[in-house]
Amino acid sequence: MAKIKRNNFLDTVDEVFTDATKQGVLHLYADGDVFTGRKISIKEKLLFHFGTTGYLGLEQDERLKKAAAEAIFRYGTQFPLSKTYISHHLYRSLEDKVTQMYGHPIIITKNSSLGHIGVIPSAVSDRDAIVLDHQVHWSVQSAAKTLKTRSVPIEMIRHNNLEMLEDKIKKLSTKHKRIWYMADGLYSMYGDEAPVLELMALSNKYPQLHFYFDDVHGMSWTGKNGTGFVMSKLHELPEHILLFGTLSKTFGASGSVLVCSNKKMYSKIKTFGGPLTFSAQLEPASVAAAIASADIHLSEEIYTLQDELRERINLFNSLLETTQLPLIDKNNSPVFYIGTGMPITGYNLVNRLMKEGFFVNLGIFPAVPVKNTGIRITISRHNQPEEIKALVQAMEYHYPKALEDTYTSHDTICRVFNLPVKELGTSLENQAHGLKIQFEKSIMKIDRNEWNTLFGDRGVFDWDGLRFLEKTFSKNEKAEENWNFYYFIIKDQMDRPILATFFTYALWKEDMLAPRSVSEKIETIRLKDPYHMTSYMLSMGSLFSEGEHLYLDKSHPLWHHGMHQLLDELEKLEGQLNPSMVIFRDFEKEEVLNEFFHNHGFFKVSMPESCTINNLDWKNTDGYLNTLSPKSRRHFKKDIAPFEDHFTINILDKITYEQIDMFYALFEQVRKNNLGLNTFGFPKKLLQHMSDDHSWEFIVLNLNGVHTMDKKAIPVGVMFCYKNKGNTYVPAFVGMDYKYAHKHQVYRQLLYQTVKRAGETGLQTIDFGMTAGFEKKKIGATVTEKMAYIQTKDNFSLELMEMMDNTK
């Protein structure tokens, strides 16, 4: 397995969002001349609006609109001065009223994102540490990351996992003054809550624990004076808590508010807070609207509004209870999430509901894992009981149809979200369309000729290669050296293969795909805990093999059904094995499969380029050089040819026990020095099995004694090469002695000797695999971009490693 390149997170988001936009559920424009909040017009179709975050409907309140309009005519569209110098005079009234709401000092910010960027670096000192809840809002995470430049440690815990939080506190408490736990009060996707009271009890146990709550989605619809979910639990704000509320969303205006009861910290933040100091202030219209809303929040009317919303929330909850719809988290917030699993099912259901006259949001990556896509429904005071009932009826009708359209099942969605399975009464399983599937757990159960017809020329996974791998990676002492193999061949009614592949279930280091800097940090932890951040993966191919692991006849009219059948079988395996990731890998760029995988809950990552040489039709060195570009010929004459006589070259098909030890040590040197590809080691018996197998041979570079420290010839490089049934030469792995590697150009010499050996033996192709594409291109290889598609149970490990990467 070669190192998957560091993937650009934004590229992945761009691809997911682009697919959603093509499906007509993202980047839409509202149209029409009037917007009332109850309905929204999209593509000239008027829809009941179940996607707002204005839960109380205050953005349509006549008092707010009148105040905003009057402010524009009296003061203009903006007040173009920094608040550090002078605030618009309406600000004093707003600050007084919001302070009265909370009963504590407040700071008004332009919006919550800028507020976090301003407050977090001011509040968190260099002696502090930060622990992020995995699902805390992106704006908080982004602001916290800026402190990595000040060497403030930033840790992450799984969502609402207090046991994990306590472990982090114990770890950090001896070296840091304060430990800031940053979380949302109410989470914006599933509508679930932070365990505020349990967190307070934990802070009583650990006085160093401080809290930073982003409660913008808990604002206005609950709490005294509409001060939000967190305040509804606390009633009073302790000094070790910083709280963010909002003047937008449910409040009905614009801006955000920081509440801080610690006078010293409040003064520090207010005096200088980055964008709080230099950014433009709220427009007069926004301030005036916020004042009008604050007056409502300070009156008894706010409780009437909250009660009216609560009636609608209770109605929606009661209606959902009578259905089989997969509600992810039952609570009393205005946010509801109905799981669809795959993005394509989410697209289908959203579009069906829009045709029925209802607008709902799509919850999609990166807000949720790709396979945890769903529809996010928000209830507001705009929604009337009759349309709430109609929405539930429409979802009940269209949910099973969306599942049928997209080849998924209710059971699948329940398993994805860890919900109890409720029988729908109708089978939604994928129809096989007469396809036959052969599923085996050993290559020995599969016809040799049939498998080699499909895969004989692909890497180390012809029939004999897989028998070799099964033998090597079984009955070993270490967990990571034992793999399960799963083979799939799907045929049509005429017994013609449409699809074939194999998967392995194995223990991986989760940082195998991470930058070297991240792996270095994790490896220091593994000195005491060898299995830290490791988990089982279900991957196409294996950690040993590279190449096109999927045979797919896209000329066959049923190939889509074959792929769906494969996903169904993998889902069954997932249920048995519970891997943390499912991986399809080693694909070239291709739009059709790219769209298929994205729609079915996988996101794309770039892999290293694949390298092959297909032209071995030459008789000698001059003939070989004539196949190279002028630049590559110069490279050969400068960096390869002058060093060839430094070595004695041996081609071995059998090796001794002593050589096994030596070659294994050279292989381990490469593995341990290559944290860019951070894998577990292979069992030493691998080399004995290679020696026993006629398909393997070893190209050994023995450095002549004149160049060694003790003046004795020693092996300093070895290439482990496989000859498959398709006349392809596969240099699968390399071992080197790093004491001599650079000075004597050992790696380049191994590459050249591999090309030379393949040409001498009359083979047709060299499959150089992945990594070191630049070096392999210089010796004549063709370089091809490769992709993998990954489906995760959650984003925690990936986001944790992103947080650990100090290069970002």
Write a concise keyword list for the protein shown above.
single chain, 808 residues, alpha+beta, Aspartate Aminotransferase, domain 1, Aspartate Aminotransferase, domain 2, Aminopeptidase, 4 domains, 13-stranded mixed β-sheet, 7-stranded mixed β-sheet, 27 helices, 38% helix, 21% strand, disordered N terminus
Can you give a write-up of this model?
By secondary structure, the protein is an alpha+beta fold. The chain has 4 domains: 143 residues, Aspartate Aminotransferase, domain 1; 222 residues, Type I PLP-dependent aspartate aminotransferase-like (Major domain) (Aspartate Aminotransferase, domain 2); 171 residues, Gcn5-related N-acetyltransferase (GNAT) (Aminopeptidase); 178 residues, Aminopeptidase (3-Layer(aba) Sandwich), CATH 3.40.630.30. Helices cover 38% and strands 21% of the residues. It is built from 27 helices and 27 strands. The strands form 4 sheets. Strands 15, 16, 17, 18, 19, 20, 21, 22, 23, 24, 25, 26 and 27 form a 13-stranded mixed sheet that branches. The protein has a 7-stranded mixed sheet with strand order 4-10-9-8-7-5-6, sandwiched between helices. The chain has a 4-stranded mixed sheet with strand order 1-2-3-12. A hairpin with a 2-residue loop joins β2 and β3. α2 packs antiparallel against α11 and α13 crosses α14. It is globular and about 90 Å long. It starts with 8 loop residues before the first helix and ends with a helix. It comes from Yeosuana aromativorans. This is Aminotransferase class I/II. Keywords: Transferase.
